[in-house]
Amino acid sequence: xxxxxxxxxxxxxxxxxxxxxxxxxxxxxxxxxxxxxxxxxxxxxxxxxxxxxxxxxxxxxxxxxxxxxxxxxxxxxxxxxxxxxxxxxxxxxxxxxxxxxxxxxxxxxxxxxxxxxxxxxxxxxxxxxxxxxxxxxxxxxxxxxxxxxxxxxxxxxxxxxxxxxxxxxxxxxxxxxxxxxxxxxxxxxxxxxxxxxxxxxxxxxxxxxxxxxxxxxxxxxxxxxxxxxxxxxxxxxxxxxxxxxxxxxxxxxxxxxxxxxxxxxxxxxxxxxxxxxxxxxxxxxxxxxxxxxxxxxxxxxxxxxxxxxxxxxxxxxxxxxxxxxxxxxxxxxxxxxxxxxxxxxxxxxxxxxxxxxxxxxxxxxxxxxxxxxxxxxxxxxxxxxxxxxxxxxxxxxxxxxxxxxxxxxxxxxxxxxxxxxxxxxxxxxxxxxxxxxxxxxxxxxxxxxxxxxxxxxxxxxxxxxxxxxxxxxxxxxxxxxxxxxxxxxxxxxxxxxxxxxxxxxxxxxxxxxxxxxxxxxxxxxxxxxxxxxxxxxxxxxxxxxxxxxxxxxxxxxxxxxxxxxx
Length: 566
Fold this sequence. Notes:
Blueprint: E1 3-4, H1 16-21, E2 35-39, E3 47-49, H2 50-66, E4 74-78, H3 85-94, E5 98-101, H4 108-118, E6 120-125, H5 130-139, E7 147-149, E8 170-171, H6 179-183, H7 193-197, E9 199-204, E10 214-218, H8 219-233, H9 242-248, E11 251-253, H10 260-272, E12 277-279, H11 285-295, E13 299-302, H12 304-311, H13 314-317, E14 328-331, H14 338-345, E15 355-357, E16 359-361, E17 366-370, E18 384-385, E19 390-394, E20 407-412, E21 419-420, H15 424-430, E22 437-445, E23 451-456, E24 461-463, E25 466-468, H16 470-478, E26 483-493, E27 496-505, H17 513-521, E28 534-536, H18 550-565
Parallel strand pairs: 2-12, 4-5, 4-6, 6-7, 7-8, 11-12, 11-13, 13-14, 14-15, 27-28
Antiparallel strand pairs: 1-19, 2-3, 9-10, 10-21, 16-17, 17-18, 19-20, 20-22, 22-23, 24-25, 26-27
Helix pairs in contact: 2-3, 3-10, 4-5, 8-10, 12-14
């Protein structure tokens, strides 16, 4: 029988905007004039309060409609993090549009693919991305009049914002209605079934195994996810109300908002709970540590490479940075091994730091598994079922596996996606007729209902008929003091498969393949040894979520094998 969550959270059938900010014109509470979002580098001048966040969103919504946005039209952002990013999202939803964030590092060809898949009406591009946006738009027949320069210039004293005359691109200030008009803008509450039928966001899947697909997420699915998350957060007595959360929490957005996790937490849940959030435009470990110290950040949402980077940073080890304000850390996107977890938690010697891992995906509008904040996380586990969720682990035939045995995760919950946008074949392969989302993740579950992710089903390596999980080998490699990052893939070796490791060594040390082999010999059985070889590299290719793009490494390995035969 499928397992069901021990919690049930009510899910209102309303728009994401109404659930987050209340109906148009409603009071935002006693904190409405307090900090909502701030640029971490210029917090004294470049910030939004909860009242101005809503007003800017209303102005943008009214301006979009004046510019020709019709219900269901798609707005694509092509920008790194920005204090106005939450405004772009909420304003698009207020106007009845569908928001589609693009990876800010895309090349023109990659952006053109997304513009074509979602059928973009407007594109908001950061200063450094305007040229690429114009080139990409040209590939799909989208004119310059649909592209806008997007930055935080409207917060300057003169409210400036320069058009890009050379490329014929206007500044997004032209999409902002006057304050008076914006303050009177009323959005559709989408009561009842309308919330389930109406798309809020089209988020591109990470493309770890094939071409990215646009994940169609309804207003209702996002409300469900956020209601479930809010329910669990409220179990913490120090954060049990919006009042306490606003008073006792300070978040740092150091992961991309164009990824599903960053989008949900830092444009929606932060607003729902009115948590002051400091936004980093780009990730930099030293700057992140500076911001933690300066703003006394209480909660971090990280991916494993950042966690590991902190444990190996000399400034952290020597206590150059004061990170004592942090009381909670969440790690997502990829498994974090027990040893890196222990090393990270040891950075807080005077009290207990308990890293909570989770399982998130765009297809589930973020989270289906998480942690009760009053419970200490079990090392290696991603937690238990979130409210309203049910889950089963199945074999290749769709039959449920016994407890403790690995099986593919199938999940059913109100926060599951509607479909892959205009891709019925992929949708049918991922969503069953009775509502189960086939995740592709392999996991086990223990007697207490705690789940342990083994790996992605398509990424398992079969050595002499035995399944080997790359994530297990990566976790061991990352424990090595001279390894900064690592990824393991499968390569063909005769008629069999073999694990090959790509390793980013610590540049301050010397690391040899023989040293790595000797290290692994004492930690893994014969079938798990790196018989496919070890390759040192400068970087591991990853999606914005932090997931390893193994297909890129497999392509590289194929070329390397062909070259070695010449």
